[in-house]
Amino acid sequence: MRIRLLGPIDVVVDGTPRAVRGLRRKAVLAVLALQHGHIVSVARLVDSVWSDNGHPPVANTLQSHVSHLRQVLGSRTSIVARPPGYLLDVGSGDTDVEEAERLIRQGTRSDDSAVAAGQLRGALALWRGSALEDVAGLAWLEGQAERLNQLRAQAVRALLEVRLDLGEHAELVRDLELLAVEHPLDEQIHGQLMLALYRSGRQADALAVFRRLRSALVGNLGVDPTLALRELEAQMLRHDPGLSPPPAPVTVSRPPLPVPAQLPLEVRGFAGREPELAGLDALLAQANGPTVLVVVLSGSAGVGKTALAVHWARRVASEFPDGQLYVNLRGYDPSGLVTSSADAVRGFLEALGVPPHRIPVGADAQAAQFRSLLAGRRMLVVLDNARDAGQIRPLLPGAPGCLVVVTSRDELAGLVGIEGAHPITLGLLTNDESRQLLAFRLGADRIAAEPRAADEISARCARLPLALVVVAARAATHPLFSLRALAEELGDSRERLDALAGGDLVADVRAVFSWSYRTLTPKAARMFRLLGLHRGPDVSAAAAASLAGLAVREARHLLRELARAHLIVEHLPDRYAFHDLLRAYAAELAEHTDSAEQRDAAIRRVLDHYLHTAYRAAVVLNPHRDPIKLPAPDHATTPEAFTDHHVAIEWFSTEHAVLIAALRQALRHGLDHHAWALAWSMHTYFNRRGRWHDWAVVWQVGVDAATRLADPLARAHAHRGLSWAYDKLSRHEHARVHLLHALELWAEAGDPVGQADVHLDLGRGLAIEGRFADAMHHARHALDLYKEADHPDGLALALNNMGMASVELGDYERGLECCRESLALHQEADNLDGEAGAWDSLGYAYHHLGDHAAAIDGYQHALDLYRDLGDRFEVAATLANLGDSRHSAGDEARAREAWREALSILDDLDHPDADRLRAKLRADGSRA
């Protein structure tokens, strides 16, 4: 299914267009489609669709339109009622707008001109006329139509540039002449026309175009052409060989893809399973066949599926030289925190070297990118603890050469029947295998001395590997205990749990756990129960200390007691995890042993720990950010402290998955202040690390939590935070909607600093779109508000934005003045990050004035500061600008040196700006 908005509004189902009749129905569909996958409130729908009508519709009018649209779309679930409005969900389909945006984004980032041309042509082919042409007259939709038509103009210009790179100058002259007539003051189009004419042997005509443009600019705006265009004229006058058509495309090598090695540590003392291992070895020989080989290891909980999969995967890892991927899908985790396919795919993409900002929006696009990266590679993929086939399918490679091992309690019949997966069912251990496992852990001599007692222990553990491991841990820690005594003790334990027995394997395992649990010291037993309330994938000793209200040293001692009993595993130094059966058992014990007040207090303490620790880390990362108020922590909570930003970044990197789980747990428990403040505290980390998808998820929870609070400032912060994430995901219209929400809330609260912050954000977005006059308006408004609040950090930021806008508008002297004022304020506040930005802006202003020595000096100051701050992306961006100024100053060798260093960093970050810089170096090299 596809909804089409780039022309008349309609719906295409199974290749057949379906008309949407009626202006209001078309408008409702358009508004929902433009925010596909997001809730649109009833108020916004009414304002957008009926803004030209003085009488808003009654409620059932909108409901009637939605009902009709569901029929057109062919599904009642295509438009879902979600408070406070509706959400459009067309499954794996998309809109033509989303497809156009994706193709344009890819085309403008590609360093292969031929590929870029194909993508841009594909985008332009989606327009069937003026965007949203049959809902004219509705103000909000007219604004959207203008945005989409500007998007088309952007694609047209980008395609012209690419075609010039491909040497199609002669074919372009006529189209560019018509565009120059339509846009008599557009310097980019006139520059392209000049280059096309010059390359077609028409130097005089090219220079005449420049003279006409200069006359028009002076007469209408009172300004000269930009420096870049003046340099182009000079190059033509001296017949610069660099203006010749580009040579045949040169393949520029990209950094090789990393070889991931994600397999977890093998369980010590793996025993038995020889038939299953032989079956897996036999299947390995088929891995070179025409399709992807998928193996499903199924069996009951605790039967050893993961142990077998990891043991075999490590044994054959050398057969997969391109690497091994592993993910725990947590399909049966008692906390309900199942790893989604989208999260798993994003984890794999990052392991394969794709930086977060290069991961596309949408689960389907991410899965396609994953399949593309695995094409032609020989890789082993282990998908552990899957819930169902639907969770698995997006994680399957699309080309032969890879082998996938899936473990699940479910037989995954759909995967076997449709994808042709090979099923292997894992049963209980045999008597010999059980004895072998005990011998590995206790020593063969001890088992040989008491074989019947060993067999009795195996029987009472139902020959289940997980239970045997727990019992063996107790036997190993008491080497003087006889196996007979341990078997009898275990038997007594089962008798005391008759109510839970009756042939149920899980009940048998619970009995074994209870036997081991009752051997714990009282404090360790309490720690075990409380860990069942923790919702993250693992827990640090520091967080466990807060959970239990203990000192970290005492908590660490108790955790190690639990690890020795094999009730938890220290899978990383000072970090502990559960088997999901043991987690469920611990939570069950807490439910029956500890009061609701005690459980709630423990959850509150651990959430206090994560919030106050994350907040401290956030302040270290950005000490100039305006603070927020936090709920006071419980007196028994011990938040962690940080010495510098490197330690803070490392903590966030280790804990970010736990923090997301804590955020959701806070929302479920009604701790809304904790939830939105946690989102605030993770903001800087996710921004600097480029984890845009996680950033959006976190702030959406923050918005949900803040909405339940009677605090407009919390809601404003949350909407603004979500706008930043949407901007990074190129969902600019969604970002603007949230910024306007934030602006309204801060205005209601009478907070001038919050309003000013939003005006800065709105201005930055407009500057990206090239709307510099509008950007200047917002920067000035922000400046006035910061003055009103006596906020020097904000004043400095606003002045810097005004300076950049002034430069872009051609008022270079005013730009210099603003940037100098900004620099002085940042220096006075000792804000090194802001100071670096101001120096960079000064360099940009001087560069446009033609004062290349001053520009180089400004960029060098910025570069030194960014290096000290360790901000690699800003170092690269400043090096690129520095190279431009050196090149304009005639120092081509040092310019290329700066560009190459910048390219090395951008390639290491895999940032899209690397493509443009690589093209610049290639073009400069052809002129050298």
Strands of the widest sheet, in order across it, are 9-10-11-8-12
Overall pLDDT metric:
84
Output the CATH homologous superfamily of the domain at 714-927. Answer: Tetratricopeptide repeat domain
Low-confidence stretches: 248-254, 493-507
Count of individual beta strands: 15
| Name of the level-1 CATH class of the domain at 714-927 | Mainly Alpha
CATH structural fold name of the domain at 714-927: Serine Threonine Protein Phosphatase 5, Tetratricopeptide repeat
For the CA atoms, what is the radius of gyration?
Answer: 32 Å
The helix content is 55-70%
Structural class: alpha/beta
CATH architecture name of the domain at 714-927: Alpha Horseshoe
Strand content: 5-15%
Shape: globular
Family: Belongs to the AfsR/DnrI/RedD regulatory family.
Keywords: DNA-binding, TPR repeat, Transcription, Transcription regulation
Protein name: BTAD domain-containing putative transcriptional regulator
Pfam families: BTAD (PF03704), NB-ARC (PF00931), TPR_12 (PF13424), Trans_reg_C (PF00486)
